[in-house]
């Protein structure tokens, strides 16, 4: 961010703190993420159930390829 925005580390840090205080972002180690449901870190159960149909299709394709 420092190089891209051409500002100091302190400026980036202060701005990120302000955005976090306004509940716009959540600071993380080495960065920040938007404070929305889409940007939340999901636990294992939520992650494992996401995109289930796509996972099953990929698995079926992989199994079929192995049998050739």
Automatic annotation (TrEMBL):
<protein>
    <submittedName>
        <fullName>Transcriptional regulator</fullName>
    </submittedName>
</protein>
<keyword id="KW-0805">Transcription regulation</keyword>
<keyword id="KW-0804">Transcription</keyword>
<dbReference type="Pfam" id="PF08220">
    <property type="entry name" value="HTH_DeoR"/>
</dbReference>
<dbReference type="InterPro" id="IPR001034">
    <property type="entry name" value="DeoR_HTH"/>
</dbReference>
<feature type="domain" description="HTH deoR-type">
    <location>
        <begin position="1"/>
        <end position="34"/>
    </location>
</feature>
<dbReference type="InterPro" id="IPR036390">
    <property type="entry name" value="WH_DNA-bd_sf"/>
</dbReference>
């Amino acid at each position: 961010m420092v190089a891209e925005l051409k500002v100091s580390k302190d400026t980036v840090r202060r701005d990120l703190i302000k955005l976090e205080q306004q509940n716009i972002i959540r600071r993380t180690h080495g960065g920040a993420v938007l404070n929305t449901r889409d940007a939340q870190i999901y636990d294992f159960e939520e992650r494992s159930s996401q995109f289930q149909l796509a996972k099953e299709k990929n698995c079926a394709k992989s199994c079929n390829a192995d049998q050739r």
